[in-house]
Amino acid sequence: MNYSSLEEKLERVDDHIIGIWKFKRKGMSPKWCATYCWEGEYYDIEGKPTVEEVLDCLYRELVLLQHGEEVTLSV
After folding, report:
1. 10 Å Cβ neighbour count for 21?
2. How far apart are CA 57 and CA 33, in angstroms?
3. In whole angstroms, what is the distance from residue 30 CA to residue 47 CA?
4. Average pLDDT over residues 49-72
5. Which ranges of the chain would DSSP assign to H, the alpha helix?
6. What residues form DSSP beta bridges with 3?
7. Which of 12, 23, 54, 64 could form a disulfide with 32 if both were Cys (CB 3.0 to 4.6 A apart)?
8. Within a 13 Å sphere around the CA of 43, how many CA atoms are in the beta-carbon half?
9. pLDDT digits (tens, 9 = 90+) for 9-57
């Protein structure tokens, strides 16, 4: 399945996502961030230029966690 739409990408991570928001600092481009939960632990993804990139990164991290691999910071 090709997850091309925002809705489809959100459905892939729906069981784990806590929230998505836009983070702005004066004089800098806005960045997208997300918080998700995996087995009772909370993780953040930050600094992505689009919401789609945040969801793609979140999905990749969930795949790594499902395979028991360590996840490094997504900055």
Report:
1. 13
2. 10
3. 8
4. 88
5. 6-13, 51-66
6. none
7. 54
8. 21
9. 888 899 999 999 998 999 999 999 999 999 999 999 999 999 999 999 9
